[in-house]
Design a protein that fits this description.
disordered N terminus, Arylsulfatase, C-terminal domain, four-stranded antiparallel beta sheet, eight-stranded mixed beta sheet, 15 strands, alpha/beta, 15 helices, Alkaline Phosphatase, subunit A
Length: about 500
Amino acid sequence: MRAALAAVWLASALLCASAAVARDDAKPPNILLIVTDQHHHRALGAAGEPVVQTPSLDRLASQGIRFTAGYSNYPVCGPARYAMFTGHYPTELGTFDNEVAPRPGFRHIQSYLADAGYFTASVGKLHYAPYGETHGFEHVYHHEFLIDASGISHYAPWLAMRLRERGLPPPPPLLEPSKDWYLTVSGLTGTNPLPEELTAEAWTTDKALRMIARAQAEQRPFFVHASYFPPHHPYVPLPKYLDLYRDAEMKLPHSFYAAPGAKPFGGLSEADFREIRRHYFGSVSQVDHQIGRLLDGLDALGLAGDTLVFFVSDHGDLMGEFRLLTKSEPYEGSIRIPFLVRWPGRIEPGRVSGAPVSLVDVLPTILDAAGIPIPPQLRGQSILPLARGEETSPGERNAYALEVSVKPFRFLVVREERWKLTCRPRVDGSCEYRLVDLVADPDELDDRSTDPAARAHRDRLAAKLDAFWRRESAFVPSGPLPTRLPRARIDLPVKN
């Protein structure tokens, strides 16, 4: 079976490469930015996870480059997405939490590309505050949250109409009527009762493909942002995708057992974590299927060879690491993300790079590919030189992550090729460091911060973190941090 899949992937890669030969290199590339929410960096087969089934993402990785050290700059949905779209850290943007709009004066991907003549569209979870607006996109189809948790969605009225046409009842609420729903297995897991073609994931794919076809009809290069809510909690895949893992062994991370004194997230048991992991993988496989439909759509339209495809997530999901779930922690499960790029004819298929990259690198990379000058004030760098195989000196590239939901900050992180240093603030303002060698210790079990043999690494990275925070702290207000706005219900009309 694996051999057959490999043959299919190779044939597809050769098809993309042959299409690129005939491409006019002076023509700006189409750009498809695919984003999932809360996607663990190991939750794809190409990353070596033996259980998860992600044939579409594995195919994408085989046709381009996979960065093994991809990072979210801020493991919270909204701030991470603003960093990705602007090339600036959330501290400078002032986006310290969800539902906080950035300070004025920052340009976003869609703005640069619209000025260059691109057709721009966003479908699915944009997560820009205030919600329900176009935010500079030419076309927007919103679906921000669960259909029963808010009305910030073009999908919700579309679904209601389709269900009425079929004589079907509305789906039951996905959330328990409890403020602590995310601390229980019954609140965190379930199954989606809808036909697959009526799910939000299928709707997002259909609309994205429609936007791509419309751009082609208008003979314009496109920038389409296709963003999916899964595998974010609650983990509610269709039964067919959950069934893929009925008999699979759900191994928990080594760090789950290395933290015996730590209280598990929400008081959940080991069996609870295994069941949650099963539903999480089901959600990953469900969204992987829709990503496959997107890639197949590009092939069917003859656009694969002319399209730069980015696949990232806004942040990860701890999935049991150190007995935790979800995000907002400096551990790898929270801040590290899958990071795939395909550009036939420009990126050699099947490349793997260990160079640290992060969400602030997405915008400069897209500008570089589109032939648009990269503003010098952007904090990220284009990754195209890395994708072409250009070497970097040790320590030349770094990835930074932080969270500033409380003052002075919750944590700071810097990652080099091998070493990662975390700083948590003490009461006296000094750093409580944690240093790990991610090559020798990928599960982050051994803190080397006080090891004399690793002192030089700690001091080098501490100096980088200090310089990073000196710059970023200047943007943190002296008074209270901006707080999220009350999430008003926004009922959006059906958009066909």
